[in-house]
Amino acid sequence: MSYHVKDKLKTLSTKCYFGCAIQADFDAKLAEAGDNLVVVDFFAVWCGPCKMIAPKLEEMAAEYPDIVVLKVDVDECEDLVAIYEISSMPTFVFIKNKAKVNWIASP
After folding, report:
1. Active-site annotation holder among 16, 20, 50, 77
2. Residue 30 near residue 45 (C-beta atoms within 8 A)
3. Is the per-residue pLDDT at 48 higher than 70?
4. How many helices (H) and strands (E) does the chain have?
């Protein structure tokens, strides 16, 4: 499945997935999340481990409806990659109340 989307934002189930986003769109999604946990998956379409974990991430999103899952394509959203200092994929950033609370990165 490709996450590149023409209108920059795609909804799968009740979760929002970014194929590409500008900072303002990303900030708006964080604001909409309120005090819900946000899991941001920084991925690349060419990344094998990213493709392998994607179905599990979708399962988690379905199992835990209060968690907001955002996917950011590192090749399309360089500003967000720089802000969150992403250097490997996949990287998962956990955000609560607009603040980064934790992260997990591929070695």
Report:
1. 50
2. no
3. yes
4. 3, 6
Q: Would residue 77 show up in a list of annotated catalytic residues for this protein?
A: no
pTM of the full structure = 0.81
Domain span at residue 46? 9-105
- Tell me which residue of 16, 1, 4 sits closest to 73, measured CA to CA: 4
Give the single-character DSSP code of 72.
Answer: E
Question: In CATH, what number is assigned to the domain containing residue 36?
Answer: 3.40.30.10
pLDDT of residue 61: 85
Give how far Cα 94 sits from Cα of 2, 46, 98, 101, Å: 23, 23, 10, 6
* Catalytic residue list contains 50: yes
Specify the number of domains making up the chain.
Answer: 1
Identify whether 1 is part of a domain.
no
Task: Convert the pLDDT of each residue in 53-100 to its tens digit.
Answer: 999 998 988 898 889 889 898 988 888 999 999 999 999 999 999 999
The tokens describing 23, both together, are: 């900072």
Cα separation of 79 and 58, whole Å? 25
